[in-house]
Amino acid sequence: MSEAKRLAGEKAIDYVEDGMIVGVGTGSTVAYFIDALARIQHRIRGTVSSSEQSTQRLRAHGIEVLDLNSTGPLSLYVDGADECDPKKCLIKGGGAALTREKIIAEASEKFICIIDPAKRVDVLGRFPLPVEVIPMARSLVARRIVALTGAQPVWRQGADERGVVTDNGNAILDIHGLAITDPVALEAALNQIPGVVSVGLFARRAADVVIVGGEPPQVF
Ligand SMILES: O=C(CO)[C@H](O)[C@H](O)COP(=O)(O)O
């Protein structure tokens, strides 16, 4: 499977143009993209990173990481996903970086999603849907999710009693047992719950192009 991820990550380099500032997502597929980007780094002006993990990898290659507040809109964002439906709506956040990923996707003109074939689904929801929440609102948000969806939110566990702590200092609830027939409506409804920071559904702002790793990669 990592071969498919590598092929998807390397194919995304085709979309990088000279002088661009490139938005960079998070995860093992993106790691291949970063490694390929390192080989052409002299052609770009820098990157904006969606996580501490990606920032470390970018800097290890000597690639400049810029503050989104100083770059203005980005031309290109490249990121992975946990699931992708035929309309290019995504579930993301398996790596707990969903909020910064959503911010950069929103700031970018073109969002290229890089996945291996196992991520393609007809209906989103087999992968538990991540929701980033303010820690004090965790139980409240969980109750509201049950009332809204009937599905089961599970607090993502981490190294200690605080559970997983995101780069923004928040907690993650993973919603199990959803079959998401209307991703735009569910994203909007979950975003209304006080204490929700962001939802790992990328439906209002879906991907523009999806690259599925393979020999050759498929693009849709
Ligand atoms: O959303 C993400 C991180 O928050 C990742 O893009 C998603 O989890 C896919 O990761 P991988 O490429 O390792 O399969």
TrEMBL record:
Binding site for substrate: 26-29, 79-82, 92-95, 119
Main function: Catalyzes the reversible conversion of ribose-5-phosphate to ribulose 5-phosphate.
GO-annotated cellular components: cytosol
Segments forming a coiled coil: none
Metabolic or biological pathway, per its Swiss-Prot or TrEMBL entry: Carbohydrate degradation; pentose phosphate pathway; D-ribose 5-phosphate from D-ribulose 5-phosphate (non-oxidative stage): step 1/1
The protein's assembly and partners: Homodimer.
A Pfam family of this chain: Rib_5-P_isom_A
EC numbers: 5.3.1.6
Keywords: Isomerase
InterPro entries: NagB/RpiA_transferase-like (IPR037171), Ribose5P_isomerase_typA_subgr (IPR020672), Ribose5P_isomerase_type_A (IPR004788)
Cited NCBIfam families: PRK00702.1, rpiA
Family: Belongs to the ribose 5-phosphate isomerase family.
Active site residues per record: 101 (proton acceptor)
One BP annotation, GO: pentose-phosphate shunt, non-oxidative branch
Bilayer-crossing regions: none
Chain's gene name: rpiA
PANTHER family: RIBOSE-5-PHOSPHATE ISOMERASE
Enzymatic reactions: aldehydo-D-ribose 5-phosphate = D-ribulose 5-phosphate
Top-level lineage group: Bacteria
Molecular function terms from GO: ribose-5-phosphate isomerase activity
Name listed for the protein in its UniProt record: Ribose-5-phosphate isomerase A
